[in-house]
Write a structure and sequence with these properties.
This protein has a domain of about 230 residues: Beta-galactosidase, Chain A, domain 5, CATH 2.70.98. The protein has 15 helices and 40 strands. Strand 6 and strand 7 form a beta hairpin. It starts with 9 loop residues before the first strand and ends with a strand.
């Protein structure tokens, strides 16, 4: 049975991402401020941006004003926040008020539903009030809308940094404002109701932007948007297998990983593709498609979710000049600097497209030319390439993983081999022998020129001869991409231990015992945590290398994330279950890497370029995984890691048998 939106319901009492709860319809994204029952923060619906907007709601109950978002402690006597539930497409929050006034009890329950609109810019807030007292009351809603400085920003300018507010909007009526060419209006269905004892009152407010917004009652707008949102998600989820497991936390982690992908999908027809896969986007930042994480971290999960539309995503990324840019804005405009991993990312996504849906010879040829062109952007050093400074690489804050490095040189060798294989599968007529020969030369150079036997690690070599040894998680990508001898691999795997790369709640990007480079201020790439895609990708690498026990040692340390995040942030700590409180993207498409590792690592589902499939489930300590409803080239596949049984269209098949 396919997943439904309700399967992704997340209890917000468990969240450890303060101030970072957003919800999206795939058209509009809106912020629910922490501690508030009815408050609404900034919102984005490209081309419209309202980053400093706000909506506060005060209640008048029989003439007594009751504020929302009471301060913590005994001094907070307003409407008390009592939790809520996040779902893709809406947030429901709860509040309670229970106090005596002049000998009479005033007691009511509030449930608000915040729905970002689909098809237009804005949101609807529905407020339901249940009178728990034994007498009738009269309730009035007193909304205070602050549109801030809303702006209309061309789609080509939506990049990495969240849009800043424009000039303050000017009031043009009781519920309308104007800022340049942007009109903002608030509409409602009545703000005062009599509520009998035990009765319920429902109010609805809509805030919308854009000239000539179509008419509509707020509750109808909300219902229509929720319906649209659920239908678009249902079509995506129908292609994703359902996971069940008796391993504590694994099901929640799988769902959180999938949710991380769902909230990155945008449907605006003005975008270069629909769906458009944003790198982040919930807070308006990184509402662009970064070739690296779009293609590199979960190519098979993304291809399953998007179906044949994945080809359009790949083609849109290939249109940008990757010798100058790393990402595309929603309209396809190139953004940022050249990035060392872009070619590998696109080849990775292309291999998934080929496996699931076939790929044309002409597209393979274009991809080959693109990768070769990107190679020329970086200076040759024998068989290797000098990938420059942090500007083009990991953006560590210390000198270290720069210039001649094992990764992404190893990824370059992998790309050449895959392009050769794609050529053979599609008939693209690439120079297959030359590509494979160059790949072998690169791997030999990595092992011979960059590996240091005494250090048991890769050196990073600068043009002036300076050498750095950085115990960085990126080095394991050289292992994954075939650049290590068995002896090198065993030495590297020995670093995967507590106090080095491993910690109670994940993996550190820089090993804790690397005193030159480890630090806590940049959990993304410099230590104390890691980019969210790195931990599960390391686990997948270990499953691929035939190290299932060590793979599980990595994966089990990440399972807390499903319990404590509705969707995964860009990075997280590894020594405690938390994410950095500010200054980072609140969501990341690479969160899909967790599900990718479980599907293609733990469950052993290997999609092959010729369209066939091999499934070799791995035994997991302390329990198992059942995957049901995986659809692949017209077949339905179910996998059990407990029994090792694989069924195709209801018929049992041997583990490791080629299917297709």
């Amino acid at each position: 049975m396919p997943y439904a939106v309700d399967d992704f319901a997340f209890d917000l009492r468990q969240s450890v991402a303060p101030a970072h709860t957003w919800v999206t319809s795939g058209w509009t994204t809106v912020h629910a401020p922490p501690g508030s029952v009815c408050g609404v923060g900034g919102w984005f619906a490209p081309p419209y941006a309202a980053p400093d907007a706000g909506l506060a709601v005060e209640l008048d109950v029989d003439g007594r004003r009751i504020a929302d978002g009471a301060a913590p402690g005994v001094a907070g006597t307003g409407l008390l926040h009592a939790g809520g539930t996040w779902r893709p497409g809406r947030i429901v929050r709860h509040g309670t008020y229970h106090r005596r006034h002049h000998g009479e009890l005033v007691s009511f329950w509030v449930r608000s539903t915040l729905t970002p609109l689909y098809g237009q810019a804005g949101f609807v807030l529905e407020v339901e009030i249940i009178n728990r007292a034994e007498r009738d009351i009269t309730v009035a809603l007193l909304p205070r809308a602050s549109p801030g400085g809303p702006r209309r920003i061309p789609l080509g300018e939506w990049g990495w940094v969240p849009p800043s507010p424009g000039p303050e909007a000017v009031s043009t009526g009781q519920w309308t404002w104007q800022a340049g060419d942007v009109t903002v209006e608030l509409s409602h269905e009545g703000l005062r109701q009599d509520v009998p004892a035990g009765g319920t009152a429902v109010f609805a407010l809509a805030v919308r932007a854009g000239a000539g917004t179509p008419p509509g009652r707020p509750r109808e707008l909300a219902a229509e948007s929720r319906g649209q949102s659920e239908r678009r998600l249902a079509s995506v989820l129908a292609r994703v297998p359902r996971l069940s497991s008796d391993i504590p936390g694994l099901e929640a982690y799988w769902r959180g990983s999938l949710a991380s992908g769902l909230v990155c999908l945008w449907d605006n027809p003005g975008f270069i593709t629909s769906p458009f896969v944003a790198t982040s986007g919930l807070d308006g930042g990184a509402l662009c498609a970064y070739a690296w994480d779009t293609g590199g971290y979960a190519p098979h999960l993304l291809t399953l979710m998007l179906g044949e539309a994945t080809t359009g995503v790949l083609e849109s990324l290939m249109k940008v000049d990757l010798t100058s840019h790393y990402a595309i804005a929603p309209d396809g405009t190139g953004l940022g600097v050249p990035y060392a991993y872009s070619g590998w990312s696109l080849v990775t996504l292309a291999t998934a497209v080929a496996a699931h849906h076939d790929i044309s010879p002409s597209l393979v040829t274009q991809l080959h030319d693109l990768v070769e062109g990107l190679d020329t952007r970086f200076a040759p050093a024998g068989a290797l390439r000098d990938y420059g400074t942090q500007h083009n690489l990991l953006e560590m804050r210390s000198t270290g993983w720069e210039h001649l490095v094992a990764s992404p040189n190893a990824e370059r060798a992998w790309c050449l081999d895959r392009l050769a294989e794609l050529s053979e599968v599609t008939g693209a007529r690439l120079p297959v022998g030359e590509l494979r020969s160059r790949a072998r030369d690169i791997r030999r150079a990595i092992a011979g020129e960059l590996w240091d036997e005494r250090e048991g690690w890769f050196r990073c070599r600068y043009p002036d001869g300076h050498t750095e040894f950085v115990q960085h998680v990126q080095a394991f990508d050289a292992l994954r991409n075939g650049a290590c001898t068995p002896e090198m691999a065993q030495t590297m795997l020995g670093r995967l231990r507590d106090g080095s790369f491993l910690a109670p709640y994940g993996v550190s990007a820089v090993a804790a015992d690397d005193r030159l480079h480890y630090e806590l201020g940049d959990t993304d790439w410099s230590g104390g945590g890691a980019y969210t895609g790195e931990g599960p990708q390391l686990a997948l690498t270990l499953w691929e290398q035939g190290e299932p026990s060590l793979a599980w040692e990595v994966m089990r340390r990440l399972l807390w994330m499903g319990q404590h995040f509705p969707y995964f942030p860009q990075e997280h700590y590894c020594d405690r279950p938390a994410a950095p409180p500010a200054g980072r993207r609140v969501n990341i498409v690479a969160g899909l890497a967790g599900a990718e590792a479980i599907l293609t690592g733990a469950a052993g589902v290997r999609f092959r370029l010729d369209g066939s499939l091999v499934v070799t489930p791995a035994a997991l300590p302390g329990g198992g995984v059942e995957l049901t409803g995986l659809t692949y080239r017209g077949h339905t596949i179910d996998v059990s890691t407990v029994s090792g049984v694989v069924t195709v269209d209801g018929r049992p098949r041997k583990a490791g048998e080629v299917i297709g």
